[in-house]
Amino acid sequence: MAHSETFAIWITGLPASGKSTIVASLRPRLEALGLRVEVLESDAVRRVLTPAPTYSLGERDLFYRALAFLGSRLVMHGVTVIFDATANRRAYRDFARGLIPPFMEVAVECPLEVCQERDRKGTYRKGLAGESTTVPGLQDVYEPPLDPDVRIDSTRTTPETAADQILAVLRKRFHVPGANRR
């Protein structure tokens, strides 16, 4: 059974769509409400679970199942979890939703061309150069949420405004400390 004031938020979108920037704005807002927050950022967790990633379908299935399980355990122990992960297939996010009933999905929407311009990690460059064949939105499928709790157009919305939009939905859906403060 989940702790009454904890929940999980999965922030999904193409690589370099702005997920991590939104998370960086959202996390301190949640902590200011007195919540214990853990960000499960896919690249950081992947370095431990699959230190030499192939990004094959089987590896991704296993990785996202493990990520969702880890998040579910944290929520069960009173920690609010923010998943900062592309999770390019809906099934990955749906699996997490099944494990974590107090679950919210945020779609960060950004055109592929803008993501490529923003790409500081070189993900798209490697994909275009043939050094990678599994970049979501480029060579591999990205299945956006069909009915996310929040949609953020990261080309028109600042990370701070995005965090405020997420908090507004959280206040309506879950018991969030300080919900009446604004």
What is this structure's SSE topology?
Layout: E1 8-12, H1 19-32, E2 37-41, H2 42-49, H3 57-76, E3 80-84, H4 90-99, E4 103-109, H5 112-118, H6 123-128, E5 150-153, H7 159-173
Parallel strand pairs: 1-3, 1-4, 2-3, 4-5
Describe this structure in words.
The protein has a single domain, classed as 3-Layer(aba) Sandwich (Rossmann fold). 44% of the residues lie in helices and 14% in strands. It has a five-stranded parallel β-sheet, sandwiched between helices. Helix 1 packs across helix 7 and helix 3 packs parallel to helix 4. The two termini are 30 Å apart.
Report the principal-axis shape.
Answer: globular
Number of strands: 5
Q: Under the CATH scheme, which class? A: Alpha Beta
Quaternary structure state of the chains depicted: single chain
CATH-assigned fold name: Rossmann fold
Helix content: 40-55%
Low-confidence stretches: none
Lateral arrangement of strands in the main beta sheet: 2-3-1-4-5
Distance between the first and last residues' Cα = 30 Å
Radius of gyration computed on alpha carbons: 16 Å
Elements, N to C (H/E): EHEHHEHEHHEH
Into which percentage range does the β-strand content fall? 5-15%
Compute the average pLDDT.
Answer: 92
Main β-sheet description? 5 strands, parallel
CATH superfamily placement: P-loop containing nucleotide triphosphate hydrolases
Estimated structural class: alpha/beta
Which second-level CATH architecture applies?
A: 3-Layer(aba) Sandwich
Query: What is the domain total for the residues?
Result: 1
Number of helical stretches of at least 4 residues: 7
